[in-house]
User: What shape does this take?
Amino acid sequence: MMIVPVVVLLALVQCSSTLAKFTLGGQEFESSEDIVKSGRVCGTKQLTQEELTRYEEEFVDAYSKQEVDIDERMLSGIPIGGVPQRMNPHTIDVYWHVLQSSAENVLVSDEVIASQLTVLNAGYASALFQFNTIAIERIIDADLAATIAYGYEADQSIMKTLHNVDIGAYVLNIYVVNIQGGAFGWATYPRDYRFKPNEDGVVMHYELFPGVLENPYDLGHMLIHQVGHWLGLYHPFEGGKCSRNAVGGGDLIPDTPASMEPTFGCSESLLSKDTCPLIDGKDPINNYMDFSDDDCTNQFTFYQILRMHRQWNVFRDKKPFKLVG
Ligand SMILES: [Zn+2]
Assistant: This one.
């Protein structure tokens, strides 16, 4: 009689442990915590404090000189000078480049890409950005596909130089690849375009596309995250310090609560997560720019949206901008 409950208990523990495991990029992970702490979730470049400060000064100077700045009133529709203002939404042309080792190894079908686009558009609907597929290119190149296995550290300048659609900073190139090492996705920042236009865009592991595999990021939200970087957003925990300004770290966004470290998982216990208790607000666990499981991410804040539109106007819009250097 004593043995039966013990066996049942062991079975339950084993079961829940098995369920939590998943394989991504050829590596087995024990949990969401495991994958976040592996450093593989996002490979977008971490700026040094000096870079962050300098780039921000340059950006603020650029948009403050624009004849019509996108300001808070234009987002909210509040009248400026008696005239109701409403910011125009942007629809961004997207070129998908799927890097395949063979014609048969499609990684993601056109239907999965369409599904990912739907997720992307849903994520950006309130931000007044939408995305439109112009073309899906399937690159059949086993040698090139093998180089991607090295991940972010090697960068993909060859792939991008060969296949980037460079008709302007306003076009989004998304590279769908099979990454066996390194991060599962990364993006270039808007400012980077004028220095390396051929390398502009987002690289994503195909296993993070919606419905491809079962893992914490299987709803397609990590592409929303990477496009957030492509539109000029940082992580809320950027710099690993409790601050929102460029001097002390943080994401430079006034309405994302400060946080020290990325979130992992998606559970009710996260509601009380507060890694910067001396600053108002709990950690932004539902923000697309955090690392929470896809189940948990569902929002950009007002000032993130404002920043994305200002970044767009300064660095990506079709009209030329006047930055020097
Ligand atoms: Zn990121």
Summary: Residues 3-20 form the longest helix (18 residues).
